[in-house]
Design goal:
Immunoglobulin-like; binds zinc ion; binds ligand G3I; 2 domains; carbohydrate metabolism; polysaccharide degradation; Ig-like_fold; alpha+beta; binds ligand 9MR; 16 helices
């Protein structure tokens, strides 16, 4: 079968002064940019040569139209085929950014979401019962609050810490992107809303710490997942605190130490509480140097977030505690852990080493006493150079390799975007950010499926995410601003197995509510997208 000609664009838009390009499938030649309102051809350009792209299973060419420097709404035409509409303007992502941030409000657990803040996506307070300590059932703890993890209603410490870390970093590195109210009920026109929203999660995280030992319970969930159309307030099963884990405790210590810095100028009492909690957890880590990884207890079958390796979590915690307190003991610990071999530039929920590296680099940039700095900074730039090289060889100009279209591949896409932007900061080279922007274009429709992986944004956007409130609420549209997991060639659910067998990796996605391994949503897929998009707000 000869594939039809099609034209893929970022369906939201292109920043006026950045490189602009579309990807053409099965077409090489001239193309026109047409202004939507007048129907006038504003520019004609030529595509590059056709190349075969195995990851998407198509033949593609690249059509740049950077010379278009007039704001407006446009579409592209080639050989009587048309692209989706898109904007060209100074700041095309402002609304998207607000919506990606507002998504965290929609993930809130334990509070009513009234119409004033939630529009048509209201629901009543949920999961308000105290949590039962699984290993000690007579012990019950208040675990109200926080964000649901994903399309399910579990609350898990490790991914929660990743999500907050991304939002903190976005706020610290791109503060001007956070000047507007989201708005949320706590808006006080003093504290940036993003920090108020993060505090909602942090207050819950604090409840997950066992204050006797400093260890942190791995997660709070029902025994099983509820049905797909169950609204949060109707999910009434008992809530269990799974056992303490080293990975949860390490991430907790790290994010609390980071929080202590971030809130210092807004609420010192809270900042001190966070630091004390971090130190208590650090004590647990010191007292428990060798711990085996977390496994679901027998009766609990919700998300496991299992991870055998806790050295990266300890490395992250040491870096943040060093950055916050300036104390040499944490520096020494960090330097010792830095000698070990584990991924130092990864920002996934299992491999959090990248956060430790970023914390350390930013500390040294500010304080200028470089030691291991040089090595880590060079490593980061080398890693970013690799990402650029891979992106230049990809049909859609992103850095994922064939075997990286895994569960939550869009997180990989955005995490790589984050690393590229950190590399820009460290090196001052703008070529890194232009590659990061290509990753945003992919997320918003410039991909082989011509689909925007953010609900509510783009003309051909995901409509049926695996997200319980969106399935159960009888509102036609899903909650907006949710980043979807994306193509996963592992075909790890029945729906994917049935519909996607034999597809090239980048096509292993289906916009069906049953496909949790391709079409679910999570807080930690939203958060790196907030970070990356903040660069252009
Ligand atoms: O890292 C390996 C890679 O080396 C290998 O080549 C590839 C081949 O399949 O697999 C990669 O591992 C995958 C891993 O995610 C990567 O992070 C596993 O196959 C895959 O099963 C695993 O999926 C995780 C999934 O839970 C199942 O455990 C997702 O990362 C994780 O985001 C997801 O999280 C769930 C929670 O459990 C429950 N709440 C919803 C949430 C999102 O779906
Ligand atoms: O809905 C669940 C989703 O949030 C998880 O990511 C996924 C993997 O752990 O599991 C989903 O639940 C499914 C369960 O694992 C198997 N039966 C069907 C459930 C979806 O309705
Ligand atoms: Zn809830």
């Amino acid at each position: 079968m000869i594939e039809k000609i099609s034209i893929k664009v970022n369906q939201v838009g292109y920043p006026l002064h950045e490189r602009k390009a579309a990807v053409f499938v099965n077409y090489q030649g001239s193309f026109e940019v047409i202004e939507e309102e007048s129907g006038k051809v504003v520019y004609s350009f030529e595509t590059g040569p056709l190349v075969s792209d195995r990851i998407s299973g198509s033949t593609v060419s690249y059509g740049e139209f950077s010379r278009l420097t007039q704001t407006g709404r446009y579409y592209i035409r080639a050989n009587e085929e048309f692209s989706s509409r898109f904007e060209v303007k100074e700041k095309p992502f402002d609304e998207l950014h607000q919506s990606l941030l507002k998504a965290f409000y929609f993930y809130r657990c334990g509070a009513d979401l009234p119409e004033e803040f939630a529009g048509e996506w209201t629901h009543k307070a949920c999961h308000t019962k105290p949590g039962i300590v699984y290993s000690e059932p007579s012990r019950k703890l208040d675990c109200n609050g926080g964000w649901h993890d994903a399309g399910d209603y579990g609350k898990y410490v490790v991914p929660g810490a990743k999500a907050v870390a991304d939002l903190f970093l976005a706020y610290e590195l791109f503060p001007t992107a956070f000047q507007n109210a989201i708005p949320i009920p706590e808006t006080d026109n003093k504290t940036p809303d993003v920090l108020l929203e993060c505090r909602y999660e942090l207050e819950w995280l604090l409840k997950m710490q066992d204050t006797h030992t400093g260890g942190v319970f791995h997660k709070l969930t029902t025994l099983e997942f509820p049905g797909l159309d169950v609204m949060p307030e109707n999910d009434l099963g008992d809530l269990y605190l799974s056992p303490i884990s080293a990975t949860a405790t390490g991430c907790f210590a790290a994010i609390m130490a980071h929080a202590a810095r971030v809130y210092q100028s807004y609420d010192q009492v809270f900042a001190n509480r966070c630091l004390e909690a971090a130190l208590l957890s650090w004590g647990w880590l010191q007292a428990n140097p060798k711990v085996s990884g977390f496994n679901n207890p027998k009766e609990i079958v919700t998300g496991e977030y299992g991870d055998e390796v806790d050295i990266d979590e300890r490395y992250w915690a040491a870096a943040e505690l060093y950055r916050t307190t300036g104390q040499d003991q944490f520096h020494q610990e960090f330097l010792m852990l830095a000698k070990e071999n584990f991924p130092k530039y990864s920002l996934g929920w299992a491999d959090v080493g990248g956060y430790g590296t970023i914390a350390y680099l930013l500390h040294e940039i500010e304080n200028g006493n470089c030691e291991v700095y040089q090595e880590l900074a060079e490593g980061l730039l080398k890693h970013a150079d690799e990402l650029v090289k891979k992106s230049n060889n990809d049909g859609y100009f992103i850095s994922l390799q064939e075997n990286e279209y895994i569960w939550g591949s869009n997180m990989e896409v955005m995490n790589n975007g984050m690393i590229l932007l950190i590399a820009e900061l460290v090196s001052g080279k703008s070529s890194y950010s232009s590659c990061a922007l290509d990753h945003v274009h992919y997320l918003l429709g410039r991909n082989v499926l011509d689909i925007s992986y953010v609900t509510g944004h783009g003309s051909k956007r995901v409509l049926h995410p695996h997200h319980r409130p969106s399935v159960g609420d009888h509102v036609a549209d899903p909650i907006p601003g949710l980043v979807i997991g994306g193509p996963n060639s592992g075909l790890q659910d029945e729906c994917a197995k049935e519909h996607l067998k034999g597809m090239p990796p980048a096509r292993c996605f289906i916009d069906h509510q049953d496909s949790y391994s391709t079409n679910e949503v999570t807080i930690y897929w939203n958060s790196p997208a907030v970070f990356v998009v903040s660069r252009w707000v």
